[in-house]
Protein 1
Amino acid sequence: MLVLQRKKGETLLIGDNIRISVVEVSSDSVKLAVEAPKEVKILRGELEEAIIVNQESVMDKAHIDDVKRIIQRDIH
Amino acid sequence: MKSSLFVEEELIYFREGLFGFEEYKTFIPLPVDETSDVVLCLQSTQDPGLSFIIMNPFYLKEDYQPDLSPADYKKLGTEDATLLSFYVICVIGTSSEKSTVNLKCPIVVNTENRQAVQVILASEEYRMRHTLNEFQKKGE
């Protein structure tokens, strides 16, 4: 892993066509601007986990009785 | 011919879909169990096989405080927080210890125009997998 230090207004180039600029820095956050080709997928890290959790959350209707049992026993 | 299987007033519209399910835009909350209005099934109107168990987060945690960003309010088309309802998605296992609830990414519905978004809260207090038994009232 490469770790490097950048200041506000400075940039970082990845490959031939991805440019990341530091727009704003505050005590606990950094605002970045990413310029990349349309086909490059850019996701916030937590969004990746949110997608995985949503995928796991799809209800399996075969287990509807478990769901009802838990609602009746544990939620009420 | 269009079927009218769903009551249009009850539909909710996700312009951006749910995370990972961007192509599914319309859902309807349906009861799961006649004895409970706390837990609902969020059913896709496009795919009968796609549904999620959702809950009222304030039932689990009275002091739940979902602070939305200005961008979230813009997507919902309102700045009036009293118009919003919140749901959280659950993964139901075989017991409450094995069931989790995602307080970090609530579904927010503008009850006036039925537009909805799923958001990621900035608060570090909320996680994507709280086990359900965390919220069981003491003495019960």
Protein 2
Amino acid sequence: MKEEIKEFIENAISKDLVVLFMKGSRDMPMCGFSAKVIEILNNLNVPYQTYDILSDEDLRSGIKEFSNWPTIPQLYINKEFVGGCDICIEMSENGELAKKLNN
Amino acid sequence: MKESYIKEKIEDSIPGTSVKITGDGVHFEAVIISESFEGLSTLERHKVVYSALGDDMKEKIHALSMKTYTPTESMKGELK
């Protein structure tokens, strides 16, 4: 991974508490899984930042390596990798996501 | 990419695992029951499966939606 991409990601997850690396934007997600996580975050009513990995090939491959996770979307809360779409759904259903965000 | 290929690859790589999978060739949904998930978080379980699939996950599989359970959890009726 390029050093500048690593720095970009580290900066991105430090700057905002809730960060979603996704396909497309929050207003126009380009994939059903990204759309699902946006829906979950919107329902939780928390501020979050998004990064579109489709517009940056280095970021797309970089974030997969950084998180050691092969798919997009990827959610970070407080610099910690939370997971992909399945995990967000599970944590939203069992209340863990809301709990994590309240801490 | 065939469902049976993914099923076998996961079952062969992770001992004590059984996989039920459906898909359309690029998007797949799997229910994975494995003894090796005991004591692991969901995140860790998914990482175990991703690592079993290796480069296939990067190249051939566009999306794999997973539900992961231990045999005990699956018997408790936690399967959804």
